[in-house]
Amino acid sequence: MKKGDVVLIPFPFSDLTGKKNRPALILVDSTYDVTVAFITTQLKWKENHDISLEPSMQNGIKKSSLIRLSKLMTIDKNLVIGKLGEISKQEIITVNSQLIKILQL
User: How many Cβ atoms sit within 10 Å of the Cβ of residue 65?
Assistant: First the structure.
């Protein structure tokens, strides 16, 4: 796994009452964990730092989606169900730029 991979993970609901398998973008890959950003098809939730993602063979996404950079999580690598695809180098550059803004770096 590497930064830019789109993977399937069990993502908890924000109130921690349950979880659902969802796509996520790997932002950091360390020895035992990965930090990911939630990917959603709920386009109505778009915020300033979200990134639009269109379906492609490369990324494995089936519907127009948003990478939610305000919804981050670090999880054990063993929770990753599988790789769906990866985003382009240009999309990684956009992710990096938006992370700098949202994290106020």
Answer: 23
Phi, psi for 17 (deg, rounded to 5) = -85, -10
Residue spans per domain, the chain = 5-102
Q: Residue 73 pLDDT > 80, yes or no?
A: yes
Give the domain 5-102 fold: SH3 type barrels. (2.30.30)
CA distance 83 to 92: 17
CA 31 to chain centre: 19
pLDDT tens by residue, 16-64: 788 889 999 999 999 999 999 999 999 998 999 999 999 999 999 999 9
Residue 19 host element (H or E):
strand 19-29
Cα–Cα–Cα angle for 104, 88, 92, rounded to 5 degrees: 10
End-to-end Cα distance, the chain: 25
